[in-house]
Amino acid sequence: MDQTPPSNAYGRYCVPAGLATRPAVRAVLAGLIYEPQTIAFMRAHAAGGDVIHAGTFFGDFLPGVAAALAPGARLWAFEPNPGSYACAVETLRLNALENVTLTNVGLSNVEETLHFRTHDAEGAPLGGLSHVTEAPGPGVTAVQAAMLDFAIPRDRQVSILQLDVEGHEKRALKGAYHLIHRCRPILILENHGNESWIQRTFRGLGYRVCGRLHGNFVYATEDLDL
């Protein structure tokens, strides 16, 4: 008999095996929403445009954000971990989401192959803590990296760019240099509070920290209510 997938107020989810103690998985298994303030903010500020969501994990953000997009708008989701990506694909199916483009790549400032750690030294899956590393080895797999400047069609207007890429934010942002200049989206960056780097890299756009949502820093070119 098939097991009923866990759910919360936004939808149903395929959760990865062996990761029940991870915060996002634990929340969904309990029928709760992980990072509810972040999802609510993204839903409220999509403003008719597309949303980019990188570090999709098993897709816990997908139903809530996708449901709030305007007609014709799209959620562009990126997840490099093959196991997490497979769960996110199933989450899309469980919720019949048709306005989401999910891609099994990491983000960087060049199109390259990355060494990506998916398991720890004991072989346990890292799930959402998977990250880019310097060298191959046990628990490390090769994944493709894409640049947002090429991954997102140039005729799309992006309202929000949200990154949860475990320390790879600077390279991912550099790969979105032209997109950010064209669209000036709200930036939601996990644990990346280097405002001076953002201002130097995207000089003249006026980005500044507007506040925090859970562990995320929110940058915008105009004042926002968080």
Automatic annotation (TrEMBL):
GO terms for molecular function: methyltransferase activity. Gene3D superfamilies: Vaccinia Virus protein VP39. Residues 55-196 form the Methyltransferase FkbM domain. It comes from the Bacteria. GO terms for biological process: methylation. InterPro entries: FkbM_mtfrase (IPR006342), SAM-dependent_MTase (IPR052514), SAM-dependent_MTases_sf (IPR029063). Keywords: Methyltransferase, Transferase. PANTHER family: METHYLTRANSFERASE, FKBM FAMILY PROTEIN, SLL1173 PROTEIN. This is FkbM family methyltransferase. It comes from Alloyangia mangrovi.
